[in-house]
């Protein structure tokens, strides 16, 4: 069983002033794949890095963040997560952007997510920072669904 964490980066939901819609979407998808899922909602910025570090320390194999990947002054998820990565996997985010752009989503190219591996006490954790919109999350699920098992197997040392 895969242990996954979903971190929603958003000031309003973390303060109880809005509903988190993208985090539950990711959690439901992962649970449907048989993952054990933990969710947390934190403000944008450094709390995202803290939540990712806690998930890695807890032994999560996969951490998906949602939100904070745009270009507003508070969107800092890529800046706080990128320094944690020991290996980058840029093709994942490139594909998420490409899927959104192909659907005609004008803002898709503005997504600045990062993806890669974070080294922890329990091994390497896959960390992927996704858009905060439900449409962007659905696009990401479409990209990740066919490759997630292979990705996690590779991180565990599986054969090509």
From TrEMBL:
Alphabetical list of CDD domains matching this protein: MogA_MoaB
SMART domains found in the cross-reference section: MoCF_biosynth
Region of interest (Disordered), ranges: 1-21
Alphabetically ordered keywords of this record: Molybdenum cofactor biosynthesis, Nucleotidyltransferase, Transferase
Pathway membership: Cofactor biosynthesis; molybdopterin biosynthesis
One Gene Ontology molecular-function label: nucleotidyltransferase activity
Pfam entry (one): MoCF_biosynth
GO BP terms in the entry: Mo-molybdopterin cofactor biosynthetic process
Superkingdom in the source lineage: Bacteria
The keyword Nucleotidyltransferase is assigned to this record: yes
Domain MoaB/Mog per the UniProt entry, residue ranges: 5-151
The protein's name: Molybdopterin adenylyltransferase
């Amino acid at each position: 069983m895969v242990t996954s964490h979903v971190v929603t980066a958003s000031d309003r939901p973390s303060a109880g002033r809005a509903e988190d819609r993208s985090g539950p979407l990711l959690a439901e998808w992962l649970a449907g794949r048989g993952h054990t899922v933990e969710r947390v909602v934190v403000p944008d910025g450094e709390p995202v890095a803290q939540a990712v570090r806690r998930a890695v320390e807890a032994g999560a194999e996969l951490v998906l963040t949602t939100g904070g990947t745009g270009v507003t002054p508070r969107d800092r998820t890529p800046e706080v997560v990128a320094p944690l990565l020991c290996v980058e996997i840029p093709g994942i985010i490139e594909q998420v952007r490409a899927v959104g752009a192909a659907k005609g989503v004008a803002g898709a190219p503005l997504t600045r997510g990062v993806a890669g591996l974070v080294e922890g006490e329990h091994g390497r954790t896959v960390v992927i920072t996704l858009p905060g919109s439900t449409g962007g999350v659905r696009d990401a699920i479409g990209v990740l669904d066919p490759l997630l098992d292979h990705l996690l197997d590779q991180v565990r040392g599986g054969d090509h």
